[in-house]
Amino acid sequence: MCVKVACVGGGPAGLYLSILLKRQDPSHDITVHERNPEGSTYGWGVTYWRGLLDKLHEHDPESARALEQHSVTWNEGVARIRDLATRRDSDEGFGIGRHRLLEILAARARSLGVRLEFEHEITEGNLPAADLVVAADGVHSALRGAHADHFGTELRPGRNHYIWLGTTKVFDAFTFAFVETDHGWIWCYGYAFSPERSTCVVECAPETWTGLGLDTANEADGLALLEKLFADILDGHPLIGRSCADGAAQWLNFRTLTNQTWFRDNLVLLGDAAHTTHYSVGAGTTLALEDAIALAAALREQPDLPQALGRYERERKAALLSIQSAARYSAQWYENLPRYMHLPPEQMFALLGQRHSPLLPYVPPQLYYRIDRAAGQLEALRRFKRWLGPRIARTVHARALASRK
Length: 405
Hints:
This protein is of the alpha/beta class. It has helices at 12-24, 50-59, 61-69, 98-111, 142-145, 148-151, 206-211, 219-229, 231-234, 284-301, 305-335, 345-353, 365-375, 379-404; strands spanning 4-8, 29-34, 45-49, 72-81, 84-97, 115-118, 132-135, 154-157, 161-167, 174-181, 184-192, 198-204, 239-240, 255-258, 263-264, 267-269.
C-alpha cells in the first residue's frame, strides 16, 4: 500500500522494517536516512533470545542466518557476591556486536534495493516527500520532539547511575558481580558479544557514585577504579570506555520513554522513538525488531494508512504491557538492592531471577524465596502466586496515578 517510504534512523528497527517492506513488495521505494557516517555506531554488544531468532528466521531467513552465525551464545548465569560465586542454568541467550548487527542488516537492505543515505540528518524542516515517514531515530527523536504534545511524550528518569563499557574479558556465561564498598554497593552485568569482546554495564546508587568519586573522575581514573573493584571477574583484562570515536563513555540515568499515541498523519514512531524499557531486562533490540515486524504486517494487511497505523499501535502497546511491567520491577529491584544483599548467594541469585515479579517488593525476601521454592513443587501455590502478583501491581499502579493528580 505504501509506494514511497522514508525511514529516518539507520538503527536495527529502521533497517529491518525496510527489509520486510521490500520483501513484501519489491516495487516499494524505500530510503533509510541516517545522520551519522556509516560504521560509526555507538555501543558494544546487544542481547537477544531464542524466541526472537525464531521470528527472524520466519520473516527473513537470510538475515537471520547471518545474525545467528555472528552471535555468541550462553545458557548459564553466574553471580559473584563479595567473594562468593554461584552458577545457574538459564535460557539460551545470544550476544552480537551492535556494529556487526547493523552491518548485516544494512547489507541485506541494500541487496533488496533499499537506498541507504548516511550523514543525512532529517528534521521537521526538511522532511522528504513520502507516503509514509517512519521516525526510527531513537529516544531523542527529533521528529517526535517536534510534535511532543501530540504524541503525549513522557520521560521518567531512573534513580541509579550506569555506564556502558567494553572489555577484552570474554565471559562464558551471563555474569553479575556485586561489590560492597564503603559507600554502598556497585555492580555490573557482563556478557560476550564476539570471540574477543564482552559488554560490561556498571550500575550504582547516586550516593555510591559520588562517594567513590566517579562523578568527578576523568575517564582513565574512573576505569582504573572500576577495574580494581571488579578485578575478580575481569581476570586482569581492561575495561574499555570508547566503542568508537564518539568521545568518552558517560555515566547516565536510564530514562523510561512512553507516548500516548504513536502516529500523526503519515508519521509513525518505531523502536526507541516510541518506547524504552530498562536495560536490565535486555529487551531493547528485540522490541525494536518486533515493532518492525508488526508495522510491516499492518501495512501489508490493512490498505488504509490511518487504520494500519492504528492497528500497529494497538497491537504493540498490548504486547509491551508485560515486558514494560517486568522492566519497571527489574529497575526497582536494583534501586532497592540492599534489601536482598544479606541473603546467601544462592538465595540472592534466585531472587535476582525473580526481580520482574510484582509480588517481590511486598514480601520479605526470605519468605518470598521459601514461597517460590514451594511454588515450584505445588501447582496450587503457583497459581495463587500468579493471581496475587498482578493484583498487587494494579493496586500500587492505581495509587501512583492518583497521587500524580
